[in-house]
Amino acid sequence: SMDRAPPPASPAGLSAFVAVSQLLGLTLLATTGAWLGRYRGGVAWHSPLQFNAHPLCMVLGMVFLQGDALLVYRVFRHEAKRSTKALHALLHGLALVIALVGIIAVFESHRAKGIPDMYSLHSWCGMAAFVLYLLQWLLGCGFFLFPGASFSLRGRYKPQHIFFGIALLVLSIASCLLGITEMLLFKISDSYSHFVPEGVLANTLGVMLVAFGLVVGYVVTREEWKRPPLAEELALSMDFKTLTEGESPGG
């Protein structure tokens, strides 16, 4: 694997789409911060502003980092599979930790203000996304990262892992859209219909969330952009897992 032939170039268009996804992702975070800072008083933990940590953490963890974790196998096409796999799991794990902080923020904020929990469609979809995401991460680590699972078992589970990876990003973005709408109706219901700046900014954030999901989804599902197995992987003829590789090498 140390032959110093230059690695093949990335497929045409892949780098551009990945760059657009990152630009959208960073803009998402900046727009969320601008909304919370300009119109909602900012973010602080032990204060009435604790709730605002919730949307920020959810956009960062359940959308941006989750999306980037899906892109790992497209971006790091020529690195060792084990390293790419570890980075994929690490990004998902970091997303889970940040999302957990966001969930704690909303429950503590509700408790402090006497607001009931888990009654809205947003909260049901959001909690489902988080619990399924945690389960997906645990199963992924168990099947693919740690030794033990047989190759045939990995091969049978891989299509489910890939499907739920994409489905969970969709569910997470849908939950964010529901949350944005709910927050606007709670905070500015009397002026929302008059195209006030806060409403327009939050709606724009929603459109960008959809755009981020579409770009990531396109990159991840484009067949010719899948990560090719490295020479040593073909030689070993094992290691079925990735979010993106085609059929198991050497079948």
From TrEMBL:
It comes from Neopipo cinnamomea. The gene is Cyb561. One of its GO terms (molecular function) is metal ion binding. It is found in: Cytoplasmic vesicle, Secretory vesicle, Chromaffin granule membrane. The keyword Nucleotide-binding does not apply. Keywords: Cytoplasmic vesicle, Electron transport, Heme, Iron, Membrane, Metal-binding, Translocase, Transmembrane, Transmembrane helix, Transport. It catalyses: monodehydro-L-ascorbate radical(out) + L-ascorbate(in) = monodehydro-L-ascorbate radical(in) + L-ascorbate(out). InterPro entries: CYB561/CYBRD1-like (IPR043205), Cyt_b561/ferric_Rdtase_TM (IPR006593). One of its GO terms (cellular component) is chromaffin granule membrane. Its main location: membrane. It is a multi-pass membrane protein. This is Transmembrane ascorbate-dependent reductase CYB561. Transmembrane reductase that uses ascorbate as an electron donor in the cytoplasm and transfers electrons across membranes to reduce monodehydro-L-ascorbate radical in the lumen of secretory vesicles. It is therefore involved the regeneration and homeostasis within secretory vesicles of ascorbate which in turn provides reducing equivalents needed to support the activity of intravesicular enzymes. Residues 20-221 form the Cytochrome b561 domain. PANTHER family: CYTOCHROME B561-RELATED (PTHR10106), TRANSMEMBRANE ASCORBATE-DEPENDENT REDUCTASE CYB561 (PTHR10106:SF14).
